[in-house]
Amino acid sequence: MSLNTPNRLTLLRIIMIPFFMVFLVYPVFSEYKCRIIAGILFIAAAVTDFLDGYIARKRNLITNFGKFMDPLADKFLIFGALLSICVSDFIFPEDWVFAPVTMRHIFFWAALIVIFRELAVTSMRLVVVSGAGTVVAASKLGKIKTNTQIICVSLIILEPALFPFTYGYLSLVSIAVMVVFTVWSGVNYLVTYWKHLDTNK
Protein backbone atom coordinates (compact mmCIF):
# COMPACT_ATOMS: atom_id res chain seq x y z
CA MET A 1 0.00 0.00 0.00
CA SER A 2 1.39 3.36 -1.06
CA LEU A 3 1.02 6.14 1.50
CA ASN A 4 1.11 9.85 0.84
CA THR A 5 2.94 12.32 3.10
CA PRO A 6 0.00 13.12 5.45
CA ASN A 7 -0.71 9.42 5.97
CA ARG A 8 2.95 8.74 6.68
CA LEU A 9 2.89 11.48 9.33
CA THR A 10 -0.22 9.91 10.87
CA LEU A 11 1.50 6.52 11.06
CA LEU A 12 4.61 8.17 12.49
CA ARG A 13 2.46 9.68 15.26
CA ILE A 14 1.07 6.26 16.13
CA ILE A 15 4.56 4.73 16.16
CA MET A 16 5.84 7.47 18.51
CA ILE A 17 3.10 6.91 21.10
CA PRO A 18 4.45 3.76 22.83
CA PHE A 19 7.93 5.27 22.97
CA PHE A 20 6.96 8.36 24.95
CA MET A 21 4.69 6.20 27.10
CA VAL A 22 7.67 4.03 28.06
CA PHE A 23 9.70 7.07 29.14
CA LEU A 24 6.73 8.39 31.15
CA VAL A 25 6.09 5.16 33.00
CA TYR A 26 9.55 3.68 33.40
CA PRO A 27 12.63 5.67 34.57
CA VAL A 28 14.86 4.13 31.90
CA PHE A 29 17.37 6.91 32.50
CA SER A 30 17.31 9.63 35.15
CA GLU A 31 13.90 11.18 35.80
CA TYR A 32 15.11 14.44 34.24
CA LYS A 33 16.21 12.75 31.02
CA CYS A 34 13.02 10.68 30.86
CA ARG A 35 10.92 13.83 31.16
CA ILE A 36 12.85 15.64 28.44
CA ILE A 37 12.74 12.67 26.05
CA ALA A 38 9.05 11.98 26.71
CA GLY A 39 8.22 15.68 26.34
CA ILE A 40 10.06 15.97 23.03
CA LEU A 41 8.40 12.83 21.65
CA PHE A 42 4.93 13.92 22.78
CA ILE A 43 5.26 17.44 21.35
CA ALA A 44 6.72 16.07 18.10
CA ALA A 45 3.78 13.67 17.81
CA ALA A 46 1.35 16.53 18.46
CA VAL A 47 3.04 18.62 15.75
CA THR A 48 2.51 15.82 13.21
CA ASP A 49 -1.20 16.10 13.99
CA PHE A 50 -1.14 19.69 12.73
CA LEU A 51 1.15 18.95 9.80
CA ASP A 52 -0.71 15.97 8.34
CA GLY A 53 -4.02 17.86 8.27
CA TYR A 54 -2.43 21.01 6.87
CA ILE A 55 -0.57 19.17 4.10
CA ALA A 56 -3.62 17.05 3.23
CA ARG A 57 -5.81 20.13 2.80
CA LYS A 58 -3.13 22.23 1.08
CA ARG A 59 -2.23 19.58 -1.50
CA ASN A 60 -5.66 17.97 -1.73
CA LEU A 61 -4.34 14.65 -0.42
CA ILE A 62 -7.35 13.74 1.70
CA THR A 63 -7.92 9.97 1.66
CA ASN A 64 -10.29 7.52 3.33
CA PHE A 65 -7.29 6.07 5.16
CA GLY A 66 -6.48 9.51 6.54
CA LYS A 67 -10.07 10.20 7.51
CA PHE A 68 -10.10 6.98 9.52
CA MET A 69 -6.59 6.91 10.98
CA ASP A 70 -6.00 10.60 11.78
CA PRO A 71 -8.72 10.98 14.45
CA LEU A 72 -7.86 7.52 15.77
CA ALA A 73 -4.20 8.52 16.12
CA ASP A 74 -5.28 11.68 17.96
CA LYS A 75 -7.25 9.64 20.49
CA PHE A 76 -4.36 7.18 20.94
CA LEU A 77 -1.98 10.08 21.53
CA ILE A 78 -4.08 11.79 24.21
CA PHE A 79 -5.33 8.60 25.87
CA GLY A 80 -1.82 7.14 25.94
CA ALA A 81 -0.44 10.27 27.57
CA LEU A 82 -3.25 10.50 30.14
CA LEU A 83 -3.00 6.85 31.15
CA SER A 84 0.80 6.98 31.35
CA ILE A 85 0.70 10.00 33.65
CA CYS A 86 -1.89 8.30 35.86
CA VAL A 87 0.30 5.23 36.45
CA SER A 88 3.72 6.91 36.54
CA ASP A 89 5.46 6.79 39.91
CA PHE A 90 7.73 9.78 39.31
CA ILE A 91 5.74 12.20 37.16
CA PHE A 92 4.49 14.29 40.13
CA PRO A 93 7.41 15.52 42.31
CA GLU A 94 7.41 15.57 46.09
CA ASP A 95 8.02 19.33 46.31
CA TRP A 96 4.95 20.39 44.34
CA VAL A 97 2.12 22.41 45.89
CA PHE A 98 0.22 19.14 46.54
CA ALA A 99 1.65 15.74 47.45
CA PRO A 100 2.12 13.29 44.54
CA VAL A 101 -0.83 11.13 45.64
CA THR A 102 -3.12 14.18 45.69
CA MET A 103 -1.91 15.32 42.28
CA ARG A 104 -2.47 11.83 40.93
CA HIS A 105 -6.05 11.82 42.19
CA ILE A 106 -6.73 15.26 40.73
CA PHE A 107 -5.31 14.24 37.37
CA PHE A 108 -7.10 10.89 37.39
CA TRP A 109 -10.52 12.54 37.55
CA ALA A 110 -9.52 15.11 34.93
CA ALA A 111 -8.32 12.30 32.65
CA LEU A 112 -11.57 10.41 33.20
CA ILE A 113 -13.56 13.47 32.10
CA VAL A 114 -11.43 13.82 28.97
CA ILE A 115 -11.73 10.16 28.02
CA PHE A 116 -15.49 10.10 28.67
CA ARG A 117 -15.98 13.24 26.58
CA GLU A 118 -13.90 11.96 23.67
CA LEU A 119 -15.71 8.62 23.57
CA ALA A 120 -19.13 10.27 23.91
CA VAL A 121 -18.52 12.76 21.09
CA THR A 122 -16.99 10.09 18.85
CA SER A 123 -20.03 7.86 19.41
CA MET A 124 -22.35 10.77 18.68
CA ARG A 125 -20.49 11.52 15.45
CA LEU A 126 -20.99 7.93 14.28
CA VAL A 127 -24.71 7.96 15.12
CA VAL A 128 -25.33 11.34 13.48
CA VAL A 129 -23.41 10.41 10.32
CA SER A 130 -25.07 7.00 9.93
CA GLY A 131 -28.56 8.09 10.97
CA ALA A 132 -28.93 11.62 9.61
CA GLY A 133 -26.16 11.70 7.03
CA THR A 134 -24.83 14.88 8.65
CA VAL A 135 -21.11 15.33 9.10
CA VAL A 136 -20.15 16.54 12.57
CA ALA A 137 -17.53 19.12 11.71
CA ALA A 138 -14.71 20.08 14.04
CA SER A 139 -15.58 23.27 15.92
CA LYS A 140 -13.33 26.06 17.17
CA LEU A 141 -14.08 24.94 20.71
CA GLY A 142 -13.02 21.42 19.79
CA LYS A 143 -9.71 22.69 18.42
CA ILE A 144 -9.13 24.80 21.52
CA LYS A 145 -9.93 21.75 23.65
CA THR A 146 -7.32 19.71 21.82
CA ASN A 147 -4.72 22.43 22.30
CA THR A 148 -5.45 22.64 26.04
CA GLN A 149 -5.00 18.87 26.34
CA ILE A 150 -1.64 19.01 24.54
CA ILE A 151 -0.47 21.96 26.65
CA CYS A 152 -1.59 20.28 29.87
CA VAL A 153 0.22 17.03 29.15
CA SER A 154 3.34 18.90 28.01
CA LEU A 155 3.42 21.00 31.18
CA ILE A 156 2.94 18.05 33.51
CA ILE A 157 5.81 16.23 31.81
CA LEU A 158 8.21 19.17 31.50
CA GLU A 159 7.36 21.61 34.31
CA PRO A 160 9.52 19.90 36.97
CA ALA A 161 12.47 19.83 34.57
CA LEU A 162 12.15 23.28 32.99
CA PHE A 163 10.28 25.30 35.63
CA PRO A 164 11.07 23.75 39.04
CA PHE A 165 10.41 27.08 40.77
CA THR A 166 6.68 27.02 39.87
CA TYR A 167 5.98 23.98 42.13
CA GLY A 168 3.25 22.56 39.92
CA TYR A 169 1.02 25.62 39.74
CA LEU A 170 1.30 25.76 35.94
CA SER A 171 0.20 22.13 35.70
CA LEU A 172 -2.72 22.69 38.07
CA VAL A 173 -3.95 25.67 36.06
CA SER A 174 -3.56 23.74 32.81
CA ILE A 175 -5.55 20.80 34.23
CA ALA A 176 -8.38 23.16 35.21
CA VAL A 177 -8.37 24.86 31.78
CA MET A 178 -8.31 21.48 30.03
CA VAL A 179 -11.32 20.24 32.01
CA VAL A 180 -13.30 23.44 31.37
CA PHE A 181 -12.81 23.35 27.60
CA THR A 182 -13.27 19.57 27.46
CA VAL A 183 -16.69 19.82 29.15
CA TRP A 184 -17.64 23.03 27.32
CA SER A 185 -16.86 21.65 23.87
CA GLY A 186 -18.60 18.36 24.68
CA VAL A 187 -21.78 20.11 25.79
CA ASN A 188 -21.59 22.35 22.73
CA TYR A 189 -21.46 19.32 20.41
CA LEU A 190 -24.34 17.70 22.26
CA VAL A 191 -26.56 20.80 22.08
CA THR A 192 -25.71 21.46 18.42
CA TYR A 193 -26.34 17.95 17.13
CA TRP A 194 -28.95 16.63 19.56
CA LYS A 195 -31.68 17.37 17.00
CA HIS A 196 -30.09 14.81 14.66
CA LEU A 197 -30.37 12.03 17.25
CA ASP A 198 -33.64 10.19 16.86
CA THR A 199 -34.54 8.98 20.36
CA ASN A 200 -37.49 6.93 19.03
CA LYS A 201 -35.29 4.45 17.16
Indicate the low-confidence ranges by residue numbers.
Answer: none
Q: Calculate the terminal CA-CA distance, rounded to whole Å.
A: 39 Å
Q: Measured on Cα atoms, how large is the radius of gyration?
A: 18 Å
SSE-based structural type: mainly alpha
Percentage of residues assigned to helices: over 70%
Mean pLDDT: 88
As for the number of domains, it is: 2
Shape: globular
The biggest sheet, with number of strands, parallel, antiparallel or mixed sense and barrel status, is: none
Count of individual beta strands: 0
SSE order, one letter for each helix or strand: HHHHHH
Itemize the secondary structure elements and their pairings:
Blueprint: H1 5-25, H2 31-58, H3 64-87, H4 100-132, H5 140-162, H6 169-193
Helix pairs in contact: 1-2, 1-3, 2-3, 2-5, 3-4, 3-5, 4-6, 5-6
Task: Report on this structure.
- The protein is mainly α and 201 residues long.
- It has two domains: 91 residues, Four Helix Bundle (Hemerythrin (Met), subunit A) (Up-down Bundle), CATH 1.20.120.1760; 106 residues.
- It is built from six helices and no strands.
- The longest helix is centred in the middle third of the chain and has 33 residues.
- The N and C termini lie far apart (39 Å).
- The mean pLDDT is 88.
